[in-house]
């Protein structure tokens, strides 16, 4: 008897960088997930299926057991407030950093130690609140769903909290990094009940992924 295992992951970077990793772990989807419109994909392993969902939905699917495993960015996991999730393995893909950024002209004379109140646009509302509350800094947060770099240019906010990799997006919009919040990469997460009920099958898959990361 084989145990069915569902892995939830998102299109975009996670899938692009995750597919080669899964391949090294011996898991290959039977059709190209970058092209297919299917949301549940078979793999070369009859017991393993890939569920393709939005990045921010991965923790929800895993918490409620709709997927046994998930691949999600640390940014998404930090922002998620549910429980019943185990963070099993740093997959070391989709690496970037979460930063506070502001107009370059301001950054050259700004001192984070002097901050008392900030007006920040971000998609990471809870993480931003938590970060600044811990430092005793008040925040007015404007929730956006993307293109945060635009906010300071149009006077929506003074600063943003966003992900930075090459820094090209900040640079192209006249912004500069001013404070580091967290290093980000994608993690393998598991449903708590699956960890007990499907222990053997999960362990063998996680071992293979561990070797693929190394
Ligand atoms: P979304 O549509 O949710 O932005 P992405 O594919 O852009 O989806 O991002 C998926 C994950 O990849 C993010 O949750 C984050 O962990 C990581 N990521 C996002 N932007 C970058 C980047 N520029 N460089 C590296 N990793 C990134
Ligand atoms: C991400 C992130 C930044 C950019 C940073 O956006 O939100 O805007 O990458 O990368 P860089 O430092 O290498 O320029 P993404 O490309 O994912 O666009 P979207 O999420 O807004 O679609
Ligand atoms: Mg993105």
UniProtKB/TrEMBL annotation:
This is ATP phosphoribosyltransferase. The keyword Lipid metabolism does not apply. Heteromultimer composed of HisG and HisZ subunits. It is an enzyme of class 2 (transferase). It comes from the Bacteria. The keyword Cytoplasm applies. Keywords: Amino-acid biosynthesis, ATP-binding, Cytoplasm, Glycosyltransferase, Histidine biosynthesis, Nucleotide-binding, Transferase. Lacks the C-terminal regulatory region which is replaced by HisZ. GO terms for cellular component: cytoplasm. Catalyzes the condensation of ATP and 5-phosphoribose 1-diphosphate to form N'-(5'-phosphoribosyl)-ATP (PR-ATP). Has a crucial role in the pathway because the rate of histidine biosynthesis seems to be controlled primarily by regulation of HisG enzymatic activity. Belongs to the ATP phosphoribosyltransferase family. Short subfamily. NCBIfam families: hisG. Signal peptide: none annotated. The lineage of its organism: Bacteria, Pseudomonadati, Pseudomonadota, Gammaproteobacteria, Acidiferrobacterales. One of its GO terms (molecular function) is ATP binding. GO terms for biological process: L-histidine biosynthetic process. It holds the Pfam family HisG. Its EC number is 2.4.2.17. It catalyses: 1-(5-phospho-beta-D-ribosyl)-ATP + diphosphate = 5-phospho-alpha-D-ribose 1-diphosphate + ATP. Pathway: Amino-acid biosynthesis; L-histidine biosynthesis; L-histidine from 5-phospho-alpha-D-ribose 1-diphosphate: step 1/9.
């Amino acid at each position: 008897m084989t145990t069915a295992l569902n892995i939830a992951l998102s299109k975009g970077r996670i899938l692009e960088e995750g597919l080669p990793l899964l391949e090294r772990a011996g898991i290959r989807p039977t059709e190209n997930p970058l092209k297919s419109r299917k949301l549940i994909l078979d793999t070369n392993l009859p017991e393993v299926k890939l569920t393709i969902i939005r990045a921010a939905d991965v923790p929800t699917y895993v918490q409620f057991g709709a997927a046994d495993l998930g691949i999600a960015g640390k940014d998404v996991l930090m922002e998620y407030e549910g429980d019943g999730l185990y963070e099993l393995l740093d997959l070391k893909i989709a690496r970037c950093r979460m930063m506070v950024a502001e107009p370059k002209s301001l950054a050259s004379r700004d001192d984070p130690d002097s901050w008392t109140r900030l007006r920040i646009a971000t998609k990471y509302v809870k993480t931003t609140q938590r970060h600044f509350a811990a430092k005793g800094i008040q925040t007015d947060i404007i929730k956006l769903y993307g293109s945060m770099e635009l906010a300071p240019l149009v006077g929506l906010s003074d600063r943003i909290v966003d992900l930075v990799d090459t820094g090209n997006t900040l640079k192209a919009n006249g912004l500069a990094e001013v404070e580091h919040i967290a290093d980000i990469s994608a993690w393998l997460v598991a449903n708590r009940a699956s960890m007990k009920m499907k222990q053997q099958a999960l362990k063998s898959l996680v071992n293979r992924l561990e070797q693929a990361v190394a």
